Every structure is written in structure tokens, then in C-alpha cells.
Amino acid sequence: MLEQIDSKLARDLLDDLCPTQSFGIVEGFIEGAVYSDRVQRPRAVLIATKSGTYTVHGEPGAHFVLGFSSFYMKKSKQRFTLFSPNIRWDTCFEKIQSKDTMKMSRVVYHLDHRDKLWDSLSLSIRTIDEHSIEKSPRFNENYYVEHWGSVDAYKKYGIGYYVEDLQGEILAECTFIFRSREKANIDIYTRECARGKGLASTLVLAFVKECRKQNITPMWDCDEGNEASMQLAKRLGFSEVNRYHLYYRNSL
Q: What is the set of domains in the chain, with CATH numbers?
């Protein structure tokens, strides 16, 4: 059986390629929980956000896998999205996954602090706040509750920017989806009518500049089949650092 443990005990099982949200929960930036079959000196951990996304780390020993399987079965009617770090965990999870589980290949990029920043368009950029969250078509209250646990957690630790038209309608936004002490994952949304005008590039530039001020490495994580996102990341100077598999229930 898996039990909730002190999140700090998972720190030694994390490496530089681990998902940002794993660090974010362990370091206290994002609301969540850590589970293991060992209360002290865990050899494997399951890290959970409040919204049903999970990451696994360490070695999948038999006792932990048994507890993990039981934990997973109890969540059969709930969202269960798993970030799997390597083929060992892929094999472990694929033995217990439900029939409606889908598998997605993901690509991770980062922007090295030594890379030169690109030029941007001259636009009036605003910082994401309560006002923009209330009227945002994508990065609204539900979004921040899902990924951060609460809007307050985002307001305390997050960074985000947006641009709007003369009528006050948001055209594009760039925000933290996850963050930790040293990394932050970018999430971008541009309204269809405003695409192809360089808005995303401009917002990412503002995002990256603020990350550098705080000594945070910007991360870009997307579906392997999303060629447009992958090309944009490369064009903006991001370089690939990792690939992994994401498992999710197709019926939820």
C-alpha cells in the first residue's frame, strides 16, 4: 500500500530530466502530494497534483508496484494522467493500465541561459492578474486550480503575460503551467484570428527575460505529433533535452 509521505523525502530521487511539476510539488511551489511504500528513505515515489496528474520516480520495485497498482485501481473513475520517465516505468504501467488508456509521446525543450534572445515586436504587454484570469478564454480560474491547486498559488509563484486588442479582448497569453525553484514550463494560447502575427514569440520573449531575472530555466513540453509547436520552440532558440511517454484515460 502507498502512503503519503513528507514531500521533501522525494528530492533525492529527482534528476534534471524530471518533469517540472515534480520539483514544484516537492519544493512547495505547487499544491500536491507524494506517496511511497516506504515512509523513510523511499526508493520509489508517486507524485500527484490535486487535479489527477501523476509522475513516478525511482526504481519500480515489486512492493511499490503492488501498492501503485492498488492506488491506480482505486482511481478508476477519476482522472489519472501519468508522466512516465523511462521504459522501465512504461513496462510497469502497461501491465496494469485500463483498456481505455491512451499513450502519447512527448518532447521536452529548454532554453539555455547562455543562448542569445531573439528580437520581438513592439507591443504593449500586460502581466497576467486577477482581471485577465477572469476574462481569459483559456488561462482562467479553472486552469490555475487544475495545474497549481489554486489561483493564489499561481499569484504567489507564477509568471505570465498577455496582449489584448482595443476592445480589451485577450489575443494571446503565455504563462507558467508548472514551475519549480529552477525550471518553469511555458504554456501559450493565441486566438485563431491573431495567429501568424508574432504574438506568441513576443510573449515568450517577455517570459524568458523574467525567467532569467529569477535564474529559472524556461521549459517547452509538447506532443511529439505537434509539429507546429516543435518548430516554434526551435525557432525561438529552444533545444531538445528529453522525450517521454504520457498515459491518460481516453474515456475521462
A: 3-97 (3.40.630.110), 126-243 (3.40.630.30)
